[in-house]
Amino acid sequence: MGISTSFFPEISNVQIIKSLTPSGSASKSVNEILALQASGVESLLIVSHLPLVGYIVGELAPEAGVPAFTTSAVAHVELDENGFGQLHSLTRVSQL
Question: Is the separation of the CB atoms in 85 and 78 below 8 Å?
Answer without folding.
Answer: yes
